[in-house]
Amino acid sequence: MLEFRAAKKEDCRTIAELYSISSDGVADYIWTQLAEDKENVYHVGQRRYENEDSVFSYKNCIVVEKDKKIIGMLVAFPMISDGAVSDDPVLAPYSQLEFDNSFYICGVALFSEYRGLGIGTELMQLAEQQAKIRKFNILSLVVFEENTDAVRLYEKLGYKEVQREKIVPHPLIHYTGDAILMIKNLSK
């Protein structure tokens, strides 16, 4: 039996591991920049998700448990963009894909043995419910074009491509090509 629940502070290490999966290396790149004295990137991610004053907080996460073990997560929050583009050339393409005034699905991930079972779709449906509760009509997300399984899932769920940006290659980032901004309009 699966349990979907709001994340707790003690879940942050597992959330960091899952967010690393969902970002396909982008989080690892960021966390490497923030690491203190050879600190493990997952520890940096854990610290970030423990921060309650950031959008990257466990407070914006839902976790899925099976037999009391976290197997997946969703990170989603309102995207209120200031229009600024990162001055880091590796991160700039992603900041250019921010869709202002949307409910942003920042990350969805499952450990590999739980993929293909419909759990990701359930997490995406929870994101829609959260968007409606918070009075957002638009959901947004960014996906790598080479992550064809994810692109297919999002298209099946009604997301449409609206913009692309060329990825700046980096050894920690798993894909090349384009990053795609996709949105879903709930008012249609």
TrEMBL record:
Domain of life, source organism: Bacteria
Residue stretches making up the N-acetyltransferase domain: 2-187
GO MF entries: acyltransferase activity, transferring groups other than amino-acyl groups
Gene3D superfamilies hit by this protein: 3.40.630.30
Record keywords: Acyltransferase, Transferase
Alphabetized CDD domains for the sequence: NAT_SF (cd04301)
Entry protein name: GNAT family N-acetyltransferase
